[in-house]
Amino acid sequence: MSSPVVKLNSGYEMPLVGFGLWKVNNDTCADQVYNAIKAGYRLFDGACDYGNEVEVGQGVARAIKDGLVTREDLFLVSKLWNSFHDGDKVEPIARKQLADLGIDYFDLYIVHFPVALEYVDPSVRYPPSWTNAQGKIQHSKATIQETWTAMESLVDKKLARSIGVSNFSAQLLMDLLRYARIRPATLQIEHHPYLTQKTLVDYAQQEGLTVTAYSSFGPLSFIELQVEKAQDTPRLFDHDVITSLATKYNRTPAQVLLRWATQRNIAVIPKSNDPTRLAQNLQVTDFDLEAGEIDSISALNQHLRFNDPLNYDIRNDTERERPLIAMFDTSDAAERAIAASPLTITLPTPTPPAFSPNPFASSTSPTSSPTLSPLSSSSTPQTITCTLSPSRHNYERSTRRNPFYNMFHIDKTSAIYADMRSEETGTPLAELADVLMRNPAGLTDSKSGEKLT
Ligand SMILES: NC(=O)c1ccc[n+]([C@@H]2O[C@H](COP(=O)([O-])OP(=O)(O)OC[C@H]3O[C@@H](n4cnc5c(N)ncnc54)[C@H](OP(=O)(O)O)[C@@H]3O)[C@@H](O)[C@H]2O)c1
């Protein structure tokens, strides 16, 4: 099964269905890309910010080497991150991303957000996420026009065949279209039945831009990121309107949601770690919903946006508590610890610390990265009680570069580790995990920043 294509205003053809690379873990990424190519995917939607372009390139290179595809068969998309909006920074970073991917042109290169941040040199932190070298949110003076002019020169230099934008409003597009020498080929936006953005979609399509939907399944992708709104919103997969259509057409709810978009010429880029779902997500152009059914799905609109940068605390004045994240070396270890959760950690005072928020730790990716949610904690607790929940989010990469999480690498030999036990069974965590964590240091309270020792 392969995807039909849509012709872009740049003259190139783009598959209508692709594979999204956000939150694809580094340790599995190359294989997932390879397997997705095997399953028929040709479009891969990546970004500097996803922190996995080297591994994407490895998967692509292997598929080409094994004769599954040629470079020309593929449609590789990447994005310009916010820290590289200054006109003179666009080409160098595009060249670095191409080198990471092991290719010499992007099929499509997109401005990720209309947000210009101060430059962070890749030798300082890469990907840089939202803060500057000093860990502060600092905007750059680059205008969208300056950035777009530099994007256009990538096309002139044949580094990108098509260029596009993401997360732009209609008003920002109107502004951009006044001066664009090369019009954006695509607009990539959050688009699902809870956020239909009809006027924006209509406007972009009328202006000849192809719209690509991201997060087609609505809240699902944001639940594991602990976005509150997503946790409180009913899953689209369980909604009567979607499930009844899935039954009628003998498809999965996911396929109905994706068809709702593709039938209106909106491209989709679902991400799945699961081979069965991966294959299903590609089969979303071979059945048709009735016009009234499309309308009934669109009527679920609640203007509910999950991917709002302001949800990520991109201000310096926030008091918001950061999620705690524990990393396990193997999924088995994580599953055992999750099964024993909630866990109580007794803090042995005044012994040396055994945990640390270790956002810049260098180590290999875990096969599983549970989220630790504190049930009770204070700045100087004697015990901390935590629930552990599984997550496939690429936490290790994001915590290395993102100030909005506190990650704990648990040292198996530490006193705290030895005292961490299941509340229900009393089993010490030391007996639940095989090889626990690598980077011993001090546990710091997520709110106050004080050492908890
Ligand atoms: N431009 C931007 O600012 C922006 C922002 C967000 C995303 N994106 C792009 O859009 C892509 C897709 O968006 P997304 O990652 O937010 O989420 P998504 O594709 O809407 O949803 C991913 C979630 O849905 C699950 N899933 C996938 N297929 C499924 C199926 N057939 N049945 C049931 N569950 C299924 C996945 O779990 P499993 O893996 O377990 O299947 C995962 O939890 C990203 O990867 C990225 O490339 C762009």
TrEMBL record:
Organism field: Penicillium subrubescens
Pfam family, any one: Aldo_ket_red
Protein name: D-xylose reductase [NAD(P)H]
Pathway assigned in UniProt: Carbohydrate metabolism; D-xylose degradation
Biased composition (Polar residues): 382-392
Region of interest (Disordered), ranges: 343-398
Enzyme class label: oxidoreductase
One MF term in the entry's GO annotations: D-xylose reductase (NADPH) activity
Any GO BP annotation: D-xylose catabolic process
Compositionally biased residues, Low complexity: 357-381
Family: Belongs to the aldo/keto reductase family.
EC nos: 1.1.1.307
Keywords recorded for this protein, A-Z: Carbohydrate metabolism, NAD, Oxidoreductase, Xylose metabolism
UniProt xrefs under PANTHER family: ALDO/KETO REDUCTASE
Its biological purpose: Catalyzes the initial reaction in the xylose utilization pathway by reducing D-xylose into xylitol. Xylose is a major component of hemicelluloses such as xylan. Most fungi utilize D-xylose via three enzymatic reactions, xylose reductase (XR), xylitol dehydrogenase (XDH), and xylulokinase, to form xylulose 5-phosphate, which enters pentose phosphate pathway.
InterPro entries the record matches: AKR, AKR2D, Aldo/ket_reductase_CS, NAD(P)_OxRdtase_dom_sf, NADP_OxRdtase_dom
The NADP-dependent oxidoreductase domain, residue ranges: 18-301
